[in-house]
Design goal:
By secondary structure, this protein is α/β, with parallel strands linked by helices. 33% of the residues lie in helices and 24% in strands.
């Protein structure tokens, strides 16, 4: 039996049916993984299960974890539930993929790391940006020394889905999403991606956080991620306690310097990740709005453009692309490739190259977030 056929024998249960839960379901089905169970509140779970053709429904995730039909648990619930659900999944002996952030603080993430090490199961955090072909290509180029010694990296992660004062989602509330919002929600994706490419961890930070909408208008009723305001909605004004945007200076443990800007109020930017790596031989740049393209900068020669599937792009994404050049692989494909990596390690007993983010990586990103909050309060450099 080949690995893909073994993956097909695994059965998944998904907790959460908001924006990201259905993304998990679709990606799993593209791999041939059986999605057998769905868990959410009673008012939602039955209709969502029917929509996606999932046979078993649960309103209590602990009951789902006891099901012998579920081999792998996907946690796509709001952030405040990640810790308790991860701990319960590990104690139940399930393989687990948890959305980021791994938990609300490092006390919680440290417990998950400890349990994951002794569980005998595969545990992953869903930093899916690692699985863009260009990111995998850059990682290999850096490791081979193609760019030379890395001097610095910079970039942005900009969105506009919270641009208006009437834009609302549970992530705006510290008790639901955590004390950091823009940085924790999207900034950690960029930081994990940069660390993944460099093969280095962030060791210190200098952060400036700010909030444009000091107050917002909350709809009287729940709103899904990226949902548009309705003219008929009624609103209640509330004070905003999380940041809309941030500027971060970073130092990595290999000596590389980093510079990152994050915003969820950047008009016109729907989901734009930009990352530039500057080395002593040449530079490389990638933007998620042009996911198939790498751009290389040279001091003395012409600059270059490499498209996925051509020799200049390299073989870094080998095994994690399915379509020929010109047939774009983007955001949904990163989930598919991430799950291919995780489920492949499950069926191989943990053998082979580990590309996915682990509990330790999830702990590191939460530790970075805590350092960012300390730095913003101190207005100075803080060690992670």
């Amino acid at each position: 039996m080949n690995p893909s056929e073994q993956i097909n024998q695994l059965r998944a249960g998904v907790i959460g049916t908001g924006f990201i839960g259905p993304v998990h379901i679709e990606a799993l089905r593209r791999l041939g993984v059986q999605v057998v169970a769905l868990c959410d509140v009673p008012s939602i779970v039955q209709s969502m299960a029917a929509k996606h053709g999932i046979p078993q429904t649960f309103t209590d995730y602990k009951t789902m974890l006891q099901s012998p039909d579920v081999d792998v648990v996907h946690i796509a619930a709001p952030n405040r539930f990640h810790s308790e659900m991860s701990v319960a999944a590990l104690k139940a002996g399930k393989h687990c993929i948890c959305e980021k952030p791994l938990a609300m603080d490092t006390r919680e993430t440290a417990q998950i790391v400890k349990l994951a090490k002794s569980s005998g199961t595969v545990f992953a955090v869903n930093y899916n940006v690692r699985f863009y072909p260009a990111v995998l290509a850059l990682r290999k180029m850096v490791a081979r020394g193609d760019l030379g010694q890395i001097i610095h990296v910079n970039g942005t992660y900009f969105q506009d889905w919270l641009f208006k004062e009437t834009d609302y989602n549970w992530r705006l509330l510290p008790q639901e999403g955590g004390k950091l919002r823009a940085v924790a929600d999207i900034g950690t994706h960029w930081m994990d991606t940069a660390s993944f490419i460099l093969g280095a961890k962030i060791k210190s930070v200098f952060a400036e956080l700010d909030t444009f909408h000091k107050t917002r208008k909350r709809p009287l009723g729940e709103v899904q991620t990226y949902a548009k305001a309705d003219a008929s909605m009624k609103y209640a004004t509330y004070k905003v306690e999380t940041e809309d945007f941030a500027s971060l200076l970073l130092r990595f443990d290999n000596g590389t310097f980093g510079n990152l800007a994050v915003s969820q109020v950047a008009a016109g930017r729907k989901n734009c990740i930009r990352l530039e790596v500057y080395g002593s031989k040449k530079s490389a740049a990638w933007c998620s709005e042009e996911p198939e393209t790498l751009r290389f900068g040279n001091r003395d020669g012409a600059n270059e453009v490499a498209v996925r599937g051509t020799p200049a792009f390299g073989d870094g994404p080998a095994g994690y692309v399915d379509y020929p050049a010109g047939h774009v692989e983007g955001f949904p494909d990163t989930f598919k490739m991430h799950f291919r990596s995780v489920y492949g390690r499950i069926v191989s007993g943990g053998k082979g190259e580990r590309l996915h983010a682990t509990a330790e990586d999830g702990h590191q990103e939460v530790a970075v977030c805590e350092a960012i909050m300390r730095s913003n309060a101190k207005k100075g450099w803080v060690k992670v």
